[in-house]
Amino acid sequence: MGSRASSLLREEDIEEIKKETGFSHSQITRLYSRFHSLDKGENGALSREDFQRIPELAINPLGDRIINAFFPEGTNKKYTAREDQVNFRGFMRTLAHFRPVEDNEKNKDLTSGEPLNSRTNKLHFAFQLYDLDRDDKISRDELLQVLRMMVGVNISDEQLGSIADRTIQEADTNGDMCISFSEFTKVLEKVDVEQKMSIRFLH
Amino acid sequence: FCLTDLFVVWFTCLVVLIMLPAMFGISLGITETYMKILLKTLEWATHRIQRASRAEEILKRSASNGEPKSAERGDFTLSDVLYFSTRGIESIVEDDVTQRFTSEELVSWNLLTRTNNNFQYISLRLTVLWGVGVVVRYCILLPLRITLTAIGLSWLVIGTTMVGFLPNFRVKGWLSELVHLMCYRICARGLSATIHYHNKQNRPKRGGICVANHTSPIDVVILANDGCYAMVGQVHGGLMGVLQRAMERSCPHIWFERAEMRDRHLVTQRLRDHVNNKTKLPILIFPEGTCINNTSVMMFKKGSFEIGGTIYPVAIKYDPQFGDAFWNSSKYSMVSYLLRMMTSWAIVCNVWYLPPMTQEEGEDAVQFANRVKSTIAQQGGLVDLAWDGGLKRAKVKESFKEQQQKKYSHMVVVTGNTPTSWQKSQFLMSCTGFL
């Protein structure tokens, strides 16, 4: 009389995900239920369409970029069987970035070095929302793209251009007219990233 | 005098004992006794389960995720994406809409396999109880219920056809109502439905429009057990078509051909004509347009509220402990849904008749619809959502995203009246269930 959805998830898998992401056992089974309910095709993986079926995500101006974050460049076989599908491990790995940072975790020893929800990794997640071509630089074009997504048709190209120019000017320290990850981190150093990029998963 | 004969006799007795009192609206107390035994059993089972395992954990969203910065200028900063991305991830983890199109999860198991999502093996006694439950439900209750429903529906067809032959108008109407009521009462017994009606003084009257939240096709049986309504719907073939034509013979209902339904003016006109005739029965409409899982009320389509006339809102809330009434039409066909209904423990629900409402001065159909929707949601203890139930199958409209973009643009345009950074963070934090 075991549960139906989580019986497809083996204990070894749960243990591995626990080690990699830091989620608790019950959080993982709970999120697996959610993964399963989103997986309309019932093939153990989510496609972009599955995500877009969530209305609140579909109307989010950055919805497409957020969905993109689940489908990293280059097929890492652990997380994606195909380029346009993400399996449960990949799903959890991305969600792990938004785990709150607890004090007693700062010294936790995880196999992959720094925990996925560290400040640096959270910032890196945000950085990659801008950096579409993954060249570790936010160019003026990439910044404009994101700006355009957030404002829609309501601001003219010129105004948007000047906002972009101002932002790059304020952030750029080495004069290459792009924002590198370290410049990005510097700009956001006073922002409470840990709190702003955390979701409470109760357990 | 062999065993099968005995069984048949016992079975017939039971059917008659349940059916006859039902037809005349009286109760012998069989169902009540059954419900009492059921409740005690479920309480015991719950107790055992809770003893053995911890309480269910739930995921919750975070309340807010920001504090006001110092009073800097509130125009665009690189950190703005943080708000949108966190909200996006939150909606991936749990959102308000998609959960409405699947059955509600129970807090504790009610001994039906179908609701067993996260509960593991607890004890032998519980398993035995579950096994007994399966036998009772499939071998005793199911045949009983199928028989009752078959009798009820046949009676509807025969009775309404007979009434249809009568010439006299007044007696005809009264008899027609009687036939309908009896049939629905038998059908309700066929589902082991226990219905509690509240505020009967607000019951819908002739020439009015009854609107209710929609969970399943059974809603019709639930409501028609206590009053007679004119049904509205599409013409079907097969068994449904037979029922529809039979019902039409004894009193006027409103059935539309598929092609007619696309012409909104035609639909509204026919409904209006019916409503304006004060001798005709009140119309029954479900403005959500689709089945929702009874935890929330979703957008009411404004069409029903443009007809004019008095609206009689009705709130229907099922108790999920005894049986899940929600019809997930993308997962189950009508037949398998009915089978699931008939093998549940029972259908228990509360029906509240709410005071009649009419459109006010300066209020358009959409606002009126929302007002009625809130009243129903509040009475039934349901979440009042502005999202369209049609999102079950259709994509959300682009215009909603454009709304979000517009609001954000007003915040970041570099003008003389730039909002403060704090005002902007307040707006961004409220950016979720924006409707």
UniProtKB/TrEMBL annotation, chain A:
<dbReference type="InterPro" id="IPR051875">
    <property type="entry name" value="Calcineurin_B_homologous"/>
</dbReference>
<keyword id="KW-0963">Cytoplasm</keyword>
<feature type="domain" description="EF-hand">
    <location>
        <begin position="118"/>
        <end position="153"/>
    </location>
</feature>
<keyword id="KW-0813">Transport</keyword>
<keyword id="KW-0597">Phosphoprotein</keyword>
<keyword id="KW-0519">Myristate</keyword>
<dbReference type="GO" id="GO:0005886">
    <property type="term" value="C:plasma membrane"/>
</dbReference>
<feature type="domain" description="EF-hand">
    <location>
        <begin position="159"/>
        <end position="194"/>
    </location>
</feature>
<dbReference type="GO" id="GO:0005509">
    <property type="term" value="F:calcium ion binding"/>
</dbReference>
<dbReference type="Pfam" id="PF13499">
    <property type="entry name" value="EF-hand_7"/>
</dbReference>
<keyword id="KW-0653">Protein transport</keyword>
<keyword id="KW-0106">Calcium</keyword>
<dbReference type="GO" id="GO:0005737">
    <property type="term" value="C:cytoplasm"/>
</dbReference>
<keyword id="KW-0472">Membrane</keyword>
<dbReference type="GO" id="GO:0015031">
    <property type="term" value="P:protein transport"/>
</dbReference>
<feature type="domain" description="EF-hand">
    <location>
        <begin position="26"/>
        <end position="61"/>
    </location>
</feature>
<dbReference type="InterPro" id="IPR011992">
    <property type="entry name" value="EF-hand-dom_pair"/>
</dbReference>
<dbReference type="InterPro" id="IPR002048">
    <property type="entry name" value="EF_hand_dom"/>
</dbReference>
<dbReference type="InterPro" id="IPR018247">
    <property type="entry name" value="EF_Hand_1_Ca_BS"/>
</dbReference>
<comment type="similarity">
    <text>Belongs to the calcineurin regulatory subunit family. CHP subfamily.</text>
</comment>
<dbReference type="GO" id="GO:0005634">
    <property type="term" value="C:nucleus"/>
</dbReference>
<keyword id="KW-1003">Cell membrane</keyword>
Automatic annotation (TrEMBL), chain B:
<dbReference type="GO" id="GO:0019432">
    <property type="term" value="P:triglyceride biosynthetic process"/>
</dbReference>
<comment type="similarity">
    <text>Belongs to the 1-acyl-sn-glycerol-3-phosphate acyltransferase family.</text>
</comment>
<dbReference type="Pfam" id="PF01553">
    <property type="entry name" value="Acyltransferase"/>
</dbReference>
<comment type="pathway">
    <text>Lipid metabolism.</text>
</comment>
<feature type="transmembrane region" description="Helical">
    <location>
        <begin position="6"/>
        <end position="30"/>
    </location>
</feature>
<dbReference type="GO" id="GO:0004366">
    <property type="term" value="F:glycerol-3-phosphate O-acyltransferase activity"/>
</dbReference>
<keyword id="KW-0472">Membrane</keyword>
<feature type="domain" description="Phospholipid/glycerol acyltransferase">
    <location>
        <begin position="208"/>
        <end position="319"/>
    </location>
</feature>
<dbReference type="InterPro" id="IPR045252">
    <property type="entry name" value="LPCAT1-like"/>
</dbReference>
<comment type="pathway">
    <text>Phospholipid metabolism; CDP-diacylglycerol biosynthesis; CDP-diacylglycerol from sn-glycerol 3-phosphate: step 1/3.</text>
</comment>
<keyword id="KW-0012">Acyltransferase</keyword>
<feature type="transmembrane region" description="Helical">
    <location>
        <begin position="122"/>
        <end position="140"/>
    </location>
</feature>
<keyword id="KW-0444">Lipid biosynthesis</keyword>
<keyword id="KW-0812">Transmembrane</keyword>
<keyword id="KW-0256">Endoplasmic reticulum</keyword>
<keyword id="KW-0443">Lipid metabolism</keyword>
<keyword id="KW-0808">Transferase</keyword>
<dbReference type="GO" id="GO:0005789">
    <property type="term" value="C:endoplasmic reticulum membrane"/>
</dbReference>
<feature type="transmembrane region" description="Helical">
    <location>
        <begin position="146"/>
        <end position="166"/>
    </location>
</feature>
<dbReference type="GO" id="GO:0008654">
    <property type="term" value="P:phospholipid biosynthetic process"/>
</dbReference>
<keyword id="KW-1208">Phospholipid metabolism</keyword>
<protein>
    <submittedName>
        <fullName>1-acylglycerol-3-phosphate O-acyltransferase 9, like</fullName>
    </submittedName>
</protein>
